[in-house]
Structure formats: structure tokens, C-alpha cells
Inverse folding.
């Protein structure tokens, strides 16, 4: 009885047909890649990391970030990125009172700590944020960079 | 022979693989608002399409890869986002407002006029 009552409001909302379509679509996608974009705090935000000849490059996928809340710390070769992603608080707005039909997006505080694959020069790091990607570039330590050795012919 | 078939299957799957963006859907008397996370998608790589009552959101991550880049760890393996939604008849598909800001797409679809709640005045004779 109670569950019927709880379900009832959804029937009034225009998106209600959309679950059925999504179930049908999963059949086309053998891997649910979206699971990698997990909402849980431990794995948010998703990150891609790699190296170039002279730097370690990281891309954090954080759409709609308030960069004022961002805190990037680098200690030896451990990088920690923390911040807060605030979602619009529409549900508490009396004027726009309504119902969330889906809530999948991550909201709140996050922190990711990453061990870098190479020794880095903590003095030479840059960060930029564009189109929802936080890009961090940190120079490798001189010793870790490939060096070409020329042979003097006598 | 077997290896070849496996490679083809893998290639096919990679082509079909997209990320289903996370969304919030909020509805009130004015209409429905859809928020979708599309980090890395620029305005010119975003497409929003409504065919009959099926809304399709597609986006491609345009991301500069530096020279001599070697991947060490990837949480995101695919650079395409895609997700479809069915819209109810109550929504006015002709008047969709879309806004993309720092990888967050906000789509507002108003409720069709005839489906808006109306107050009916009763005249007392």
C-alpha cells in the first residue's frame, strides 16, 4: 500500500516513459561505461593520467566546478585534489517546487589522492580548468627526464 | 582466423561504446529541467536532437593530448557521451532552452500550455 502511494506522484511527471527506453538501450552497450563515472566520493572525480618526456599530465573530469573551492596539494610524488561541487538547490525553492525524478550527479565534497608514476619537480606545476576538465601538468625531475648523451669523437 | 574475428568484435564494441552521462531530472509546474554532466565537451561538439518525442544528447570530448603522451591510468576510456530520453506529451518540444557551462548541460523543456494547471474562477450567481 505504502509503496503504491510513494510511486503514485511519478505517474504525473512527463519523463516517466523513459525507463523502458533505457532498458532497451542497454542491450546495445555490452559494457556499462558509465559505471566508471561513479558517484561515490572515493572515486570522484574520474581522472586520466599519463606522462610525456618531461612532464606528468593529469585530467580530472569535474563538470561545473567552482574553482574557488579547489585545493591542490603536491608532496613529493603524491598529489591530492579536493574541492566541493555544489548542485543547484532547486528543491528548497518554494517558487519552483517540484520533484527530482533522477539524481545521479555527484554533489558535495570530494578528494582524490594520487601517487604519480614518476618523481616530479614540485616547484614546476600548472593547473587550468576549461569545459569541465581540470588539467594539471607537473614537470618531471631532471633526473627522471630522458637525456641524450652525445659522444665526442676525438 | 579466430584472432581476426576477435579483433573485429573488439573494434565493433569500441565503436559502439559511449559514456552515458550522469543526469539529474527535476520537474515542476513550469516544466522539466535536465542537468547532464558532460566534462570536456565544448559547445561545437554538443548535439541535442528531438525526433518525435525522443530526446538525444550527444557530445564529444575535445581534449588536447600533448606530444609523446603515454597513458598511465585511465578512468575514462571513451571520448563520446550519448544518452536518450523519451519525453511525455505534456512537454512542449518546440520550446527547449539549452545552456552549456563548464561541461554542465542544462535543458529546460516547458510544460505545454494545455497541461499547465489552471485556476477556474467560479462565478457565483
Amino acid at each position: 500500500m505504502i509503496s503504491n502511494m510513494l510511486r503514485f506522484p511519478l505517474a504525473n511527471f512527463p519523463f516517466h516513459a523513459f525507463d523502458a527506453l533505457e532498458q532497451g538501450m542497454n542491450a546495445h552497450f555490452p559494457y556499462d561505461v558509465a559505471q566508471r563515472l561513479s558517484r561515490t566520493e572515493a572515486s570522484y572525480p574520474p581522472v586520466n593520467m599519463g606522462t610525456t618526456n618531461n612532464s606528468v599530465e593529469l585530467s580530472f573530469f569535474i563538470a561545473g566546478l567552482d574553482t574557488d573551492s579547489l585545493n591542490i596539494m603536491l608532496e613529493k610524488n603524491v598529489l591530492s585534489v579536493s574541492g566541493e561541487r555544489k548542485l543547484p538547490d532547486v528543491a528548497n525553492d518554494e517558487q519552483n517546487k517540484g520533484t527530482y525524478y533522477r539524481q545521479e550527479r555527484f554533489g558535495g565534497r570530494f578528494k582524490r589522492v594520487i601517487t604519480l608514476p614518476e618523481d616530479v619537480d614540485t616547484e614546476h606545476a600548472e593547473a587550468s580548468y576549461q569545459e569541465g576538465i581540470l588539467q594539471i601538468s607537473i614537470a618531471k625531475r631532471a633526473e627522471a627526464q630522458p637525456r641524450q648523451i652525445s659522444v665526442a669523437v676525438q | 582466423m579466430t584472432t581476426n574475428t576477435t579483433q573485429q568484435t573488439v573494434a565493433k564494441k569500441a565503436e559502439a561504446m559511449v559514456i552515458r552521462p550522469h543526469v539529474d531530472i527535476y520537474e515542476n509546474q513550469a516544466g522539466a529541467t535536465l542537468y547532464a554532466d558532460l566534462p570536456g565537451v565544448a559547445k561545437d561538439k554538443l548535439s541535442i536532437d528531438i525526433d518525435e518525442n525522443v530526446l538525444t544528447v550527444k557530445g564529444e570530448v575535445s581534449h588536447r593530448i600533448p606530444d609523446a603522451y603515454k597513458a598511465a591510468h585511465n578512468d575514462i576510456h571513451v571520448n563520446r557521451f550519448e544518452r536518450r530520453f523519451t519525453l511525455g506529451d505534456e512537454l512542449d518540444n518546440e520550446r527547449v532552452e539549452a545552456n552549456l557551462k563548464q561541461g554542465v548541460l542544462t535543458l529546460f523543456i516547458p510544460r505545454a500550455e494545455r497541461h499547465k494547471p489552471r485556476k477556474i474562477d467560479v462565478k457565483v450567481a
